[in-house]
From TrEMBL:
Domain FAD/NAD(P)-binding: start-end pairs: 7-357
Highest taxon of source: Bacteria
Pfam families: Pyr_redox_2
Listed name of the protein: NAD(P)-binding domain-containing protein
Amino acid sequence: MVDSVVDVLVVGAGPYGLSVAAHLKGRGVQTRIIGVPMRFWQENMPEGMFLKSEPFASSLGSPRPGGGFDDYTSGWRAGRPIPLGTFLAYGRWFADRLVPETEPDRVTAVERSGTGYTVTLSTGETVAARAVVMAVGVGGFAHVPDEFAGLPAELASHPVAHRDLGRFAGQDVAVVGAGQSALETAALLAESGAYPCVLARTTRLAWNAVPDASLSLVRGPRSGLGRGWRTWLWSERPSTVRFLPERTRRRIVRTTMPPAGAWWLRERLADVPVRLGQHVTEVAAHAGRVVIQTRDHEGQVSRVEADHAITATGYVCDLDRVGVLSPEIRRTVHTRHGYPVLDAGFQSSLPGLYFAGLTAALSFGPVMRFVHGSDFAAARIATHIARTNPSRPMPRVPAQARP
Ligand SMILES: Cc1cc2nc3c(=O)[nH]c(=O)nc-3n(C[C@H](O)[C@H](O)[C@H](O)COP(=O)(O)OP(=O)(O)OC[C@H]3O[C@@H](n4cnc5c(N)ncnc54)[C@H](O)[C@@H]3O)c2cc1C
């Protein structure tokens, strides 16, 4: 027996969950959305951060005009970086206007039952849902290289663990990585009074160019993922990605928007030591510090000692890490390389179980890693659910158990 019944339950209230719920509501589908709006952006991104995405690529998916970033800020020009706080406020504004019924709880379990799913909430309530949309975001997929995995949290962490980098003031911090997260973490650490040192495998840091809205046939059109004809296709027509061979899709996800710093970050790193061409070979704790041994391309071995190491080494989708899905679901749902295999409507091999955001990247390409993909994903999911999950009888709820 369950406590309540709903057509669709959306797990997570980040950009994707909010967009999906808004589109489902727009289609008149009875929906519940569980999660604190924009929680990951509030709790797991560093204070002082700026978005790398341009304003035109930073809108949540709205079923009607009026829900875009530009509607919230009005006239934020391209090339002006968006502060984290502004984007957070926009996300909450979107939630208040389009999905005010978002429930600030957690989903603790999703199990299959009959023709649908039983979802357990942190309040103890059990809900029967015909369809479940998993929009759990990137936080659970933080990737830590094996060499660092055994270290205690005082010595090594992933950027996801830090809202306030000021706690490292006065300390030596090794930042591993060469992407925006590594470079911005290093800049924010230096500005907070810490002594960061960047360690990167690459032999040259890459920097994104200052955005330029001019038309150029040679360089190709501008899109949410950057310049170029192919980039435009992956960004603006993600449905085409699904028709490509799996190997090509994997390559596109890996290589579109490779690690690079935003143009506005470069100057801020001028005084931060950066050691390039360094492969981490061994990591150990010694006398309360972390000792990192590296080898360069010529085989030269070096050691870096720090009070703490931050591994800004990204996020890797692995459905096995989505602990709220029952072991039976994780065992039976079709996956490839850790991603669920999705149909044209973002539905997995288990009818009624949908995935949005990073987990959809192997099917729909790199734009699913960014806010820009949320409108496409949400519209597709809502259309698919409205079409393929017409009201069917659901398990009966005993009157005394209704909340
Ligand atoms: C440092 C950093 C900077 C970034 N900058 C940009 C940028 O500039 N532009 C851009 O487009 N993208 C950026 N991204 C990528 C960004 O994370 C995604 O674009 C965006 O957050 C995807 O939205 P989402 O809803 O899938 O995920 P999230 O924003 O992670 O939201 C998922 C939500 O689900 C919640 N949740 C998870 N499990 C449960 C559960 N069991 N019950 C209830 N709630 C749950 C989480 O708490 C979270 O709030 C950045 C990522 C990082 C880490």
